[in-house]
Amino acid sequence: MDSAAKASKDAMNRVSDLPQGSGGETQQRDGSGVMTTDHGVPISDNQNTLKAGPRGPALLEDFVLREKIFHFDHERIPERIVHARGSGAHGTFTVTRAIPELTRAALFQEEGNSCETFTRFSTVAGSKGSKDTPRDVRGFATKFYTQEGNWDLVANNFAPFFIQDAMKFPDLVHAVKPEADRMFPQAASAHDTFWDFVGLMPETLHTVMWLMSDRALPRSFRMMEGFGVHTFRMVNADGDVSFVKFHWKPRLGMQSLLWDEAVKVSGADPDFNRRDLWEAIDRGEFPEYDLGIQVFDSEFADSQFYDVLDATKLIPEEDVPVQIIGTLQLNRNPDNFFAETEQVAFMPQNVPPGIDFTDDPLLQGRLFSYLDTQKSRLGTANFFQIPINAPRCPFANMQRDGMMQTLIHKGRSNYEPNSLDRAGEDPGPRPSDQGFQTIRRMDQREDANQKLRVRADKFADHFSHARLFYVSQTEVEQDHIAAAFTFELSKVDLPHVRINVLAQLRNIDEALAQRVAKGLDLDLPERAPAASETVEMQPSDALSILKNALETLKGRKIGVLVDDDSDQDEIDTLTSAIEAEGGTAALIAPRRGLRDGQLDGTPSVLVDAIALVLTEAAAEKLCKHKPAIDFVSDAFAHCKAIGHSDGAKPLLEKAGVSTDEGVVSLSDLPEAAKQRYFSREQKIWAAQS
Ligand code: HDE
C-alpha cells in the first residue's frame, strides 16, 4: 500500500472509530459504580437539595441539583411528525438468493451474505403515547448496515399509498391528524377532515380500501406484510437496469384483529403490539420475514394501463411473482428505547450502489423530507453519528464541525482536492470509481425535458385498483370493509362529506356503496365523475389475508381459564400440547396467585383462543362474575376457538355460546385454535351484513 492510500485508510478508520451500534460500549463509561455529575464529579447525596439549614431555602450553589433538573427539563425531543408511535428491534438479514444479475450491491453478491439491521414498526396518525391498535397504516422501516453503507427500506404494511405526489403529503397528514382547533380525535381517521380530503381526492381511495380492511388491524407486527410501495431500480455491474418492488412476507403468515376486538384491546392493553414483539424476542421466538422482489422491465411497465411510477397502484403478484432473496430475523430487543428506537433516523435516500430511485413523484419528495426532518427531531446535522444511525462500515468525507460533533477529525485535510500528501500529510478520503453512480434517465418521451406542474396521463385512473382490492377479498373480509366504512362515516358530522364519499364509492363497487348508505341511513347520491374509465382487473388472491391464512399455533397465545380446584393434570396436558405446536399458554385465574394473569384484567381479547379448565362448581360460581362471562362471550363473538372441560358448560351457556366446530374439548383445542370461525359473524353481527 502506498503512503497516500495508507494515510487515507487510516483516516477512514479514525472517523469510523465510533462506538458501534448499541452493544454496550456506549454505556456510561465509569465501571466503578460511583454516581457522578455529567462532568465526572462524584456525587455523595442523591436525595437532598443543598439548603441553608434543615428547613431553609435551597441554595443556587447546588450544582448537583441544577444539573439534574436541567437535564431532565431537556429529556424530550419532538416526536415524529408522522409514525410517532413505534417499537424497534435489532436483527440480522441474510441473503438466501444471490442476485448479481440484477444488482451490483455487495450485500446481494453471494448467498449467505448477511448484515446487522434495526427495524422500527409504527402507527402513523397517533402521537407517541397513543394506542397500538387504531385503524391505521403500520410502518415497517428497516436499516440494513451493509458493507457499502446503510440501506434504509422505509416500508409500510400497505402496498399502495394515499397520494401520488409529495405536494399533497402535508394536506393528507393535516387531514388525518387530530383536528386543528380541538385536537381530537387521537389516532383515528373517523372524523370530518380526513373523509373530507378523501371525498375530494379520489386518488386516496385505493389505499382507503386497505385502511378499511383488516390489513389496518394487524394482530401482531410479526403477522403483517411490508411493502416498499414505490418502484425502485436495481443496476448490475454491467450497468443493466431493472425495475423492482420490495415485499416483506412474515413467516408466521398474516393475521388481523376484528374491529370490536381492536377497540377493546386498546383499553385492556394499549401496548398490545409492542408487548407482543418484545415478549416474543425475549422468549427466543425470533420474528422472521422473507424479503421478496417483483422484477420487471420497461417493456412491462409501458404495457400496463397504469403507471408503475404511481404509488397509489400496485402490481398484482399474479402478474409479476414475488421472488424471495433473503430473510430478516429480529433477534434482539433494544437496550434503550430512546437511544435506539426513538433516535433511529430512517431515510429512503440511504441506498447502496446497485439500488436506485425512480421518478415516482412521491418518492422524490421523500428523498428530501426524511433528511430534513431528522435535523428538526435530533437537533443537529451530525445525527448520523448517533450509534444507531452510524454506518457499521468505514465512512469518511470532508463534512466538518456542527453541533454535537463527536468525531475528532485530525489534520488539515478538510477539502478536496488537496495535495497535502505530497508534503507527507494525510490527504483524507477521495471519491472512488466504485462509488454510487446515479442511473441515467431513460425516459425517451418528447415532454421528458419540459418543466411542468402536471400529473402524467396514466395517473388519472383512481378506481380500478380500489375495485381490484375489494373484489379480491373473501365475503367475510368484504363485510368487514363495509362495516368499517359505515363506522367511520357515522363519525363524520358534515353531511356533504358523507355524501361525497358515498358518491366516490359507487365508482368502486355499487353493492358496497349501497351497504354503506344503508348503514348510514342515506340515499345513494349520484356517482362521482371519474377522470378515466375503470378497468376490470383479474382478482388477486394475494391481496386477501384470509385466502392466505396459515393454520398454525406458532406465535399464538391461548388463554387458559382456571380456578383453585381445576385439575392440574388437565392443565399440564393442555399446556404441553399447546407448547408442542409452538403456541403459548397463559393461565388466567380469578385470583392471580401463581398464575400468569388475573381474570378481571386479562380479557379474552388479549389472546387468540381460550380454554376453560373448570369444575362445575367453579363454572357455576363464575356465572355470577361479569368478567368471566365477557371472557367467554367475547371469545365466541370474536370467532375464537373455545376448548372446555365438561364442568365448564354452565359458563358457556351463561355466555350465550352455541356449539359449532370451533367449540371443542380440551384435547381438540390445540388443533382448533389454529384458525378463527368466521361463520359465527353472520349469526352474531347481524347489523354488519
Ligand atoms: Fe414517510 N415520513 N413520508 N412514508 N414514513 C416519515 O420521517 C414522508 C411515505 C414511512 O420508523 C417522516 O423520520 C413524505 C410512504 C415510515 O422512523 C417524514 C411522504 C411510505 C416512517 C416522512 C411520505 C412512508 C415514515 C417522519 C410523501 C411507505 C417511519 C419521521 C412524499 C413506503 C420511519 C421521519 C421510522 C416517516 C415523510 C410517504 C413510510 C416526515 C413527505 C409512501 C415507515 O420525513
Automatic annotation (TrEMBL):
Residues recorded as binding heme, renumbered to this chain, are: R80, R120, F169, R366, Y370, R377
Which residue intervals define the domain Catalase core in the entry?
Answer: 36-424
Which coenzymes or cofactors are required?
heme
Key words, A-Z: Heme, Hydrogen peroxide, Iron, Metal-binding, Oxidoreductase, Peroxidase
Q: Which reaction does it catalyse?
A: 2 H2O2 = O2 + 2 H2O
Q: Which Gene3D superfamilies does this UniProt record tie to the protein?
A: 1.20.1370.20, 3.40.50.880, Catalase core domain
Domain of life, per UniProt, equals Bacteria
Signal peptide location: none
Q: Which protein family is named in the record?
A: Belongs to the catalase family. HPII subfamily.
Question: What is this protein identified as?
Answer: Catalase
The record lists the organism as Paracoccus jeotgali
